[in-house]
Amino acid sequence: MYQQGGLPNSSETRDESRILQVSNSSDKPPSDQPPPIPLPVFPNSLSPLSAVSAIEFLHRGEGAVVTFHRKNAECWQNLGGILVRDLRERFVSLRESLFSDSYFLINSTYVRPTSNRTSDLTGLPFCSRRQEALRWLNAFYVDVDAAHNNEDFCVESLLASLLTELDRAGFPTPSVLVFSGRGVWLLWPLVDHADRGRPVQAFPEKCEIYKRINRALANRFRHFGADVGSTDPSRVMRVAGSLNTKAPNQYQEVKFYKHPGEFNTMPEFADLLGLRARKITFSEKRVIPKDEARVRAGIARWSRPLEGFLDLWKVRGHFGERVRHSAVYIYALLLRRNRVCISDIVKRCESLGRACVPPLSAADIRRCVSSSRKAVSGSFDESISNTAIANMLQITCEEKATLTGWFKPPAVTRADKIANRRNLIVLELKRAAVFGPDRGRWIAARKMSQILSKLSTLKTATRNQATLEEILNHEHEHSQAEQTELRTDGLAVESVATSPMLAVQDDPVLTPREAAQYLRISVATLLRHTRMGEIKSFRIGKLWRYRKSQL
């Protein structure tokens, strides 16, 4: 199976080949040392691989992304991911970050950043290497960590034993042989049995078979120190040419070697290892009926904008020069979202294009309809919003007020509700002729609440804001001639006619700290007298407040 020979001994790889070469010296070993273990010969077609060549050889799938990582004394660092087709151009900028204790993903992932963040060291985006995020399964592997339990680790002896076992078991020659510093990696590149021109797609069922085969390989070489826990598809390995700082000095540089051979498939390796197919059992999941309210909401999400667009067309009569292209594009998009057939979409868009001023050409209409297809094919989260449609069509506030089925009226804020309620209270106090700075003459809170509930709710008061303002203006006009004197403990107080809230504004509201400073006492003393009822106050929720005139 193997031919006599050693590693290539070119000027570039002379130092690298020393690991695998067998000494041909005729000197005999000293008598006090055991004879060296004879090494089996290795194929003379073995050639070294650089870091980029090794990654390109393993990651052969279309759109493959490889992620890089680094381990230092403090933590595990994610260096980001990059498309393999762009790796050769950018590897020079990554070389410094991958100098020592650096790793790369064996199997390929997607161009799908987990976030907008990028690595501070390399500038590459962070990509996920979890099993569910993988795209291609590139190679089976065995990680033989013989040096973890053996202080007298010898690469030559380990290699001799592994090659003998491979030959005895009838296993194919590994196409990639890696010396990681304290052990050996054996890699068999993987291809799809249905299409040998690409790796295996990382579907969930394929990943399960992949793990079973890797686990069987690890168990087969377990007595050599193979890591039986290293079987998952998201495994990383050291970068070629980087340094393993934990290895002996003579083995610190990580070296990759390639042997030209046939690629392997999952069924072929399963037969070699004696693995049998497992019966697939489907779990009986209870079918949960869809929520009817959500179904109706999903339909209304696009039916309402379409109805609103048609109403806007009726209101305007036509779309002008600045928005006519956007109008045809949005009309086609909304029709597609409402699942109208493409022939009807073209007819309706042509009708809209002819109604524009000036009319659109047939070529422009076709381009707008074609552009809408790409927008609809995206995810739901990326779909166009009503605000974006309003901006593209330049819909004014007056037009939005008429399109109530499409655009909701502005929500009433809490501040508006408070202002409306305060205006109603002032109006009722003026009608009762008790509005003034003396709150003791005001209507009790419970009675005022009953009056307000009989008049209207806050929502009705918001709708009838114009009527409320007319009443207040009428009261203001007559307040100039009516100078009412309010008697409080024998004192005459002239009612304020200029502004109904001016009297309240002239009497400031103090917090407990401000009130304590005004009375020159501590806050604890102020609160104690307040709870005893000796100091007049009022509460807003759980907070005490004080009128300065009552202190």
Key words describing this protein structure:
single chain, 551 residues, alpha+beta, Alpha-Beta Plaits, 4 domains, five-stranded antiparallel β-sheet, four-stranded antiparallel β-sheet, 18 helices, 19 strands, 38% helix, extended, disordered N terminus
General description of the model:
The chain is α+β, with helices and mostly antiparallel strands and 551 residues long. It folds into four domains: 246 residues, RepB DNA-primase, N-terminal domain (Alpha-Beta Plaits, 2-Layer Sandwich); 111 residues; 87 residues, no CATH class; 42 residues. 38% of the residues lie in helices and 15% in strands. The chain contains 18 helices and 19 strands. The strands form six sheets. Strands 1-14-10-11-9 form a five-stranded antiparallel β-sheet. Strands 3-2-4-13 form a four-stranded antiparallel β-sheet, with no helix packed on it. A three-stranded antiparallel β-sheet has the order 5-8-12, covered by helices on one side. Helix 8 packs across helix 9. The radius of gyration is 41 Å and the shape is extended.
